[in-house]
Structure formats: C-alpha cells, structure tokens
Amino acid sequence: MAGAGIKVINKRIKSVKSTQQITKAMKMVSAAKLRRSQDRLLAARPYATKLQHLLQRLAGTGAADHPLFEVRDVKRRLYVVVTSDKGLCGAYNMNVMRAAQKDMDASRDEGVAVEVLAVGRKGRDFFRKRGYEITASFDDFGGQASDEKARQVNDIVAHRFLSGEVDEVRLCYAEFVSTMTQRPNVSTALPITPPQAEEEQQDGPALDYIWEPSKEAIYAALLPQYLRNRLYLALSEAYASEHGARMTSMSAATTNAGEMIESLTLQRNRERQAAITQEISEIVGGAAAL
Q1: How much is the pLDDT for 62?
Q2: Which 3 state secondary structure label does DSSP give 187?
Q3: Pick the catalytic residue: 9, 16, 44, 89?
C-alpha cells in the first residue's frame, strides 16, 4: 500500500514539475514581450502629448472646426473593446470586459443602441455570448501595437462616425500603470473634444506662428492623425497591460508550483519513512516470534 502511495505522489510531482516548466517559460516570454510593449508605450506617450499641444496652439488661432468635433444626440454608441486573444493573464480581460459591459448597460438604460468593435478574441466571444451586436472584430493582432493595426481600427471607427451610423465612440482598454497594476479605462474617442487654446507660459509678448500651407489645412490633416494616434496609444497601453498581467500570473503560478512540489516531496518522504518503519517493525516482530 505504501509503495502504491509513493508512486502516486511521484506521478503528481512529475506532473507539477512539467507544469512549472511551462509557466516559467511563459513568464520569460511575457517578460520579453512586456519590455518591447513598454518601449512602444514610452515612445507613444510623448508623441501624443506633443500632438495635443500642437492642436491646442491651432485652437487658439480659431481653426477648431472639423466634422470629428460634431456633437449629436446619441442614439447609437460604438464601443471599441481591447482584450487579449489568449488567456492565462489573471483578471486582466474580465476587468476590462466588466467595465465595458457596465457602461454599455448604462447606455441601454438611457435608450441608446450599443454595438461592439472587438479587438481580441476574448472580448469578441464574451460579448457575442451575451447577445451584443458585434460590428467588427480583430483577433490576429498578436499582442503588439503597430501603426497598421491602429489604422485598421481607425478606418472603421472614423467611417461609422462620419457617415452618421454611430453618434459616439468609446474606447475600453486597460491602462498600464505598472507590471502589477492595470486600470480599466472607458473614455469617449469621438466626437473629439475641441482642445482649449494653450496659454503662453513665457514672459513677454505671445509668439506669432506662421502656419503653412494654412491653419485649416494643417488642422484637417492633424485631426485624423490625432484619432489614429489615440487608438495606437490605447493598443499600446492594452498590450503592455496584458503582458504585465500574464507575467505576474505566470510568476505566481511558478511560485505556487514550487510550493506544491515541496509539499508533495515532504509527503513522499513521510510515506517512505512510514514504509521503512513498518518493514523494520515486521522484521523485529518476526525475529521475536522465532
């Protein structure tokens, strides 16, 4: 009986060690992807800030007039929900989807029709099972942001808004705070809130800029780029959050596997000790009988 018990424990130890190797490898892969995603994110944030400042300067010239600013009575709202294609990243996906669903339910309560543009297989499946209208979905982005991926999403979003098919667009994604912390973010992407004119911070007279070919032409070119950049930034935030969450989850799983192996090893040693003690007792008992 004791031998059979030890065999079962050995089998469990072998299984847990195999799982530990997988989780450790996934942790290392996620760490490498996280570094790349963080590099993209750190490069994207300053660019977005500078672009915002440029729009503010243009707004101060009276050029703030564009169809992307058009505010309408909201009858139909499009939600761009960014999740992962794969699991094993803790509560990352569920936190984003629950935040998005809460906002969608509030929209429905107001009598606003809701549709979903899902970036990521997890979000697509989640909302499809719950009966939400899926306008489009992307499940082949590979967990990395790029200008081309942002453009694909931007083309659909901008077309549906400018054509009047939807009256408002909201972004739902996880904002990257740190490797351990990802914050669900639900914010309005369209219509774009007209930027406030930037106040000059310098002493002396305000600078007079020369805009070529014209303020209106520059504004018309920058606004679509601003929207595309915002989508790119959302993807960058989301994928950095995903890899951070997965690395943390796999690190915890690897640690838990190690603790389980230690516990099973201790249990196996006790079984062996009990078996040896029993054999010695049987030998001593047999010798005494003789």
Answers
A1: 60
A2: strand
A3: 89
- The two structure tokens encoding residue 153: 């999403």
Give the tokens for residue 202. 């310098």
C-alpha span between 19 and 26 (Å, rounded): 11
User: If we measure between CA atoms, which residue out of 240, 243, 255, 237 comes closest to residue 28?
Assistant: 243
Please confirm, yes or no, whether 89 is among the known catalytic residues. Answer: yes
Q: Give residue-wise pLDDT tens across range 78-115.
A: 999 999 999 999 999 999 999 999 999 999 999 999 99
Q: What is the pTM of this model?
A: 0.84
Amino acid identity of 88? L
Q: Where are the alpha helices (DSSP H) in the chain?
A: 2-59, 92-109, 121-129, 147-162, 215-289
Number of Cβ within a 10 Å radius of residue 135: 17
Q: Does domain 37-193+211-246 have CATH number 3.40.50.150?
A: no
Neighbours of 118 (CB within 10 A): 27
In this structure, which amino acid lies at residue 76? R
Q: Determine the Cα–Cα distance for residues 14 and 24; give it in Å rounded to an integer.
A: 15
- For the chain, the maximum distance between any two Cα atoms, rounded to a whole number of angstroms, is 115
| Owner of token pair 């939600």 | 79
Match 């942002």 to its residue by tokens: 150
C-alpha–C-alpha distance, residues 180 and 255, integer Å: 16
CB atoms within 10 A of CB 207: 8
157-193: b (≥16 Cβ within 10 Å) or e: bbebbeeeebbbbbbbbbbbeebeebebbbeebbbbe
Which pLDDT score, from 0 to 100, does residue 196 have? 64
